[in-house]
Predict the structure.
Amino acid sequence: MLTSLIGYIVEVSRGLGITLSVFAMTLIISLPLGIVVAVCRISKNKIICSIAKLYIWVLRGTPLMLQIALVFFGLPSVGIVFDRLPAAYLACGLNYAAYFGEIFRSGIQSIEKGQREAANILGFKTAQFYRFILLPQAIKRTLPAIGNEVITLVKDTSLVYVVAVNDILRVAKGAGGRDANTLLAYVAAGLLYLVMTYVITKLFELIEKKVQYEE
Amino acid sequence: MKKKILSVCMATMMILGMAACGSSEQPTQQPEQEQTEQQATGEETESTLDYDKIVVGLDDTFAPLGFRDEEGNLVGVDVELMEATSEIMGIPFELQPIDWSMKETELANKNIDMIWNGYTITEERKEKVAFSQPYLNNRQVVVTMADTDINTLADLTDKTVAAQAESSAIDAINSKPEIAQTFKSLGEFETNDQCLMDLEAGRTDAVVADEVIIRYYVSKKGEEKYKILEEDFGKEEYGIGVRKEDTQLLEALNVALDTLKENGTTKEISEKWFGSDIIME
């Protein structure tokens, strides 16, 4: 049993590349886009704000699997054709940008207005205020929420099954199906997810320590 | 500030737009002109198709028809048949894993040219795709634990039955409502392996599944533990699905399947995997 579990872990690791690439590309797309979403969402311009609200509503309000399927299978009907993996990157990135956007908004809005007024009086320009006063505090306050989301993302990467790329879970499903031993193969996949989330958890602990200061 | 926000938004949209345009140039559609030209030459040199390669869609988690061995290589009954067919047609096949629930969409979108993986021929599917001649016989059989007193379909009265969701087993059960109505319940699981696990746990009394598939699982889990009833939920056939407009491809495929049946290749593959020749004569 243990030897076959180890065997499955080795075999299922073949999906690690796909899982990690979806994970990384999603973060690369969604973190900057999330800032844009947050900034638009708190904009005083009603149109921009409404667009951001609509974006968040649609992207958070529909299943991610459906969004991946729509990007890969639906967009070709309007002439936009993505390969399997890029479609997954884009859909996951757009989806997570909505969640990150709301987290960033919570961080930005948690800074009292008084700080801005004080910064103005002290002669800070808007950019300087954001860079030196708002951002450090907002990042610190939102780190636990971002960590939550990043860990959810590790597991959400398995939704790429719909475009049939062989991530960890799909490899496990295939291996388990082959040997009529689905459960053990899934346990092996679960252990790999645990290792990944452990690394990310530790990483966030480190970052939180780095930004720790007296408020 | 507002202007800045606006320009950031615009920039993002433009980048996304460009990315989209960039990838749309990938050659996914066969130019029509090329097709007609090939048609003209096709009459002279037999079985010349306008394909550099044929992309075959298969579910690579579907043992024993198409799956991956420990090294990650694609193997299985259908995979071996594909290799033999490709050789006869003289066109390389590219095997593209797909998610089974998306198979017809993949075909319609031209991501793949064929659906080939234990694809049961049904009237419903005939509306969407063109089927090749059948190449494999299959039955919808009932599996129980060896020590139960279930021996006929009538014995399934008030029993809990399970089958793989979205499989032709479900269709087969529904096509016999007079029996299906006597079930205590019908559970649907994602895989046949899960059905058998539930059977073993005692929550399910009987599993209905493709004979081809379930015999493979039973042999993996231990033949002595299970029994397969003589009565079944009907016979069916596996075929290969292509787009309806690809008539030339379908024709070439049928010719190749004929050749494989004649020269004994299908018999060889069938005996290797099933111990008997269940591939269509």
About this structure: Residues 34 and 54 of chain A are 14 Å apart (CA to CA). Chain A has one domain: 2-210. Chain A touches chain B at residues 7, 11, 14, 33, 36, 39-40, 43-45, 48, 51, 69, 73, 75-76, 79-83, 86, 90, 126, 161-166, 170-171, 173-183 (CB under 8 Å). Residues 2-210 of chain A form a domain with the MetI-like fold fold (CATH 1.10.3720.10).
